[in-house]
Amino acid sequence: MALVKKNQISGQVAARGFDDEDTGAGGGSKLLAEAQKRKARTFARQQKAAERIAAATSQLASGIAESASAAEELRKASEQIAQGAEEAAGAAQESQKAVDHGAGLIRKAQENADLSATKTEALQVDLPP
């Protein structure tokens, strides 16, 4: 029996002149059935691969959507942080002004205390013991 290329079995069977005597009874139809089975298996593999690709694509799309959602949440959180930082900076400036004002009041009170001490000493010198 001669070797036959698998992907063109039905055409080659007719071209080489195979008949039932060479392959046995129903051998040609057997080869045709095997070719159809191989074709069906190939199609099944291709379909399974297509399904796997579709599932992977779906998962990828889901991941991209999830990433976009997370990026939006991050953007909103960054805006809130920036707003909080601006408010904190404003509050810090107000606190600095209050501290500076308090320091000025303390200096003035110190000056007044020094002046009072000087006046008190001057009055004590004028008073007899």
From TrEMBL:
Source organism (scientific name): Paramagnetospirillum marisnigri
Biased composition (Low complexity): 79-96
Ranges where the record places region Disordered: 1-30, 78-105, 110-129
Protein name as it appears in the record: Uncharacterized protein
